[in-house]
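User: I've been trying to design a sequence by hand for this structure and keep getting stuck. Would you show me what you'd pick, starting by listing the structure so we're on the same page?

Assistant: Good idea, let's start from the same input. This is the structure you sent:
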């Protein structure tokens, strides 16, 4: 147990790690470790349910995919809560032992089985012909506050546990099946994950909900990010005529049934909110944009296109931009945005130092860091006496097998933006120059390791053997043509905070890692000097340009602009 997120919460976590193997080491004379391990935590329990309401206005009218043209209901919110139950029940089943699912006394009314005031504005939800157990499950899903609980261990509940805070009244409509009669004890037994999946699938098929079914899964997955940020989930109110649906009734798609088989992998992704946040923030990262140009790169989309992201339509546009830029996580972008997470993601993007997790790219196929790519061509570019700084940074984590130093480059920089310029080979560390004539190589993700309580380690190679490509691939995304916007041109903020933060962080990683401050002029810039002054005395300076160098010191705006305009 340790603090997680901004809130913070103290979740129940499981120790895990990822194994990375050296790729492209043929012809390399340097003795480098062939394998490295990076430890992490996977959240399996939380102390409180995530608050949610049906007060959201994001995708309150579901625009559907490009193949969905008919008008039908929007039940994204209901489906998302159903998925939360399925994920929770699956975790409880895998946890075993004292883990248990149970219903509470809070439940939604079923038409004909309780008091009903016709004058009250209620929302009728038709669940079709279901047995008593399934009807009881629906009354828990649509209940106020907590209709069900998923106890994982002691006081900890499943990460997808929810509590409805709004007073929206729901009444369940169902057709009785006289052949399906259950005893009272059986009715009160919560549905298993498989049975709940079947019930939700029947509901989606009944209303021909099409793409809403898988999108709602990604919405449920995003609930752990709200716990991380300490925010409430706001779902669109269920509407009988609020979305685009398939033009023909197709029934259950084979893709839908595959979701159940792959559920453990989606659960793992959801249980590591750092990975999901890193993935979404990474949609704004672009290769070859140096740290001193981040503000200029982000300005058009953040300040001109998404300036009103607090509005519902603005967040829908954000989701579509994310889906277009990173098609492999397009569904996650749309589902997460529907829950209202968009503004929190943009706060981190604006800083220039969004949360990063090295597992994010191999898990999702969405690149988000210049070190996700080993680069191409020779390490010495143009002039053999120079090597690009991004390549220097990429080579530092390659640990020699006989290394007796205490350099700390095991983990990636905490900003995705690459350093600007190039380094003289005479100022590069031996561990860098020993690879100057090598073919490109780097550590690449191989598999995940689950550390069990009994000391056993289980290797998990995922459900895809194909390593993700850095090239963008097209996929089916919602029809963006139905949304039109006009944008106001704005001047670039002279402060350029994102560029400043990214630049400070990327160079700070190099120095704090153990190489000290090289004699290159760029490291003596006043913008960086303020950071060096805060380091411990043991951080060494290069032989040239000592700290008391008489270089002119620029102040305030002039100083900042001089740094941000630096190329080499």
């Amino acid at each position: 147990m340790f603090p997680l997120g901004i809130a913070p919460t103290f979740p129940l976590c499981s120790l895990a790690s990822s194994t990375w193997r050296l790729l492209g080491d043929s012809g390399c004379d340097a003795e480098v470790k062939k394998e490295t391990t990076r430890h992490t935590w996977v959240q399996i329990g939380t102390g409180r349910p995530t608050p949610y309401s049906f007060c959201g206005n994001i995708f309150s009218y579901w625009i559907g995919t490009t193949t969905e043209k008919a008008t039908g209901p929007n039940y994204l919110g209901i489906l998302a809560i159903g998925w939360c139950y399925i994920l929770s029940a699956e975790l409880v089943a895998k946890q075993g032992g004292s883990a248990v699912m149970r219903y509470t006394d809070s439940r939604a009314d079923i038409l004909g089985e309780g008091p009903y005031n016709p004058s009250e504005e209620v929302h009728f939800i038709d669940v079709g012909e279901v047995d008593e157990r399934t009807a009881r499950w629906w009354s828990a899903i649509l209940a106020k506050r907590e209709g069900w609980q998923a106890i994982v261990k002691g006081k900890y509940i499943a990460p997808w546990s929810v509590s409805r805070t709004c007073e929206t009244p729901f009444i369940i409509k169902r057709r009785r099946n006289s052949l399906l009669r259950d005893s009272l004890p059986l009715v009160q037994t919560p549905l298993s994950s498989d049975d709940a999946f079947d019930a939700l699938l029947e509901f989606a098929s009944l209303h021909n909900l099409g793409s809403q079914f898988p999108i709602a899964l990604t919405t449920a997955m995003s609930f752990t990010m709200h716990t991380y940020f300490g925010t409430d989930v706001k779902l669109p109110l269920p509407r009988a005529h609020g979305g685009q649906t398939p033009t023909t009734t197709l029934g259950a798609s084979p893709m839908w049934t595959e979701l159940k088989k792959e559920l453990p992998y989606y659960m793992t992704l959801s249980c590591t909110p750092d990975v999901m946040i890193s993935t979404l923030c990474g949609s704004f990262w672009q290769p070859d944009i140096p740290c001193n140009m981040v503000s200029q790169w982000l300005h058009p989309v953040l300040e001109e296109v998404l300036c009103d992201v607090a509005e519902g339509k603005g967040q829908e546009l954000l989701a579509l931009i994310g889906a277009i830029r990173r098609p492999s996580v397009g569904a996650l972008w749309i589902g997460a945005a529907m829950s209202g997470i968009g503004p929190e993601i943009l706060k981190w993007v604006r800083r220039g130092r969004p949360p990063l997790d090295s597992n994010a790219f191999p898990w999702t196929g969405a690149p988000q860091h210049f070190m996700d790519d080993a680069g191409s061509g020779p390490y010495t570019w143009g002039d053999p006496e120079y090597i690009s700084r991004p390549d220097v940074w990429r080579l530092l984590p390659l640990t020699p097998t006989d290394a007796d130093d205490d350099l700390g480059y095991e983990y990636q920089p905490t900003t995705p933006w690459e350093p600007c310029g190039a380094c003289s080979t005479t100022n590069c560390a031996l561990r860098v120059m020993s690879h100057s004539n090598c073919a490109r190589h780097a550590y690449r993700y191989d598999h995940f390791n689950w550390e069990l309580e009994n000391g056993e380690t289980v290797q998990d190679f995922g459900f895809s053997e194909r390593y993700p490509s850095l090239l963008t691939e097209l996929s089916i995304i919602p029809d963006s043509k139905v949304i039109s916007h006009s944008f106001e041109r704005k001047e670039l903020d002279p402060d350029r905070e994102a560029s400043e933060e990214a630049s400070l962080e990327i160079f700070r990683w190099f120095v704090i890692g153990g190489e000290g401050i090289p004699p290159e002029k760029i490291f003596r810039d006043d913008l960086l000097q303020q950071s060096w002054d805060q380091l411990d005395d043991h951080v060494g300076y290069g032989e040239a340009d000592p700290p008391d160098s008489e270089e002119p010191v620029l102040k305030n705006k002039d100083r900042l602009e001089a740094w941000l305009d630096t190329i080499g």
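That's my pick for every position. To get oriented when you compare it with your attempt: The mean pLDDT is 83. The chain has three domains: 45-271, 298-357, 369-459+494-568.
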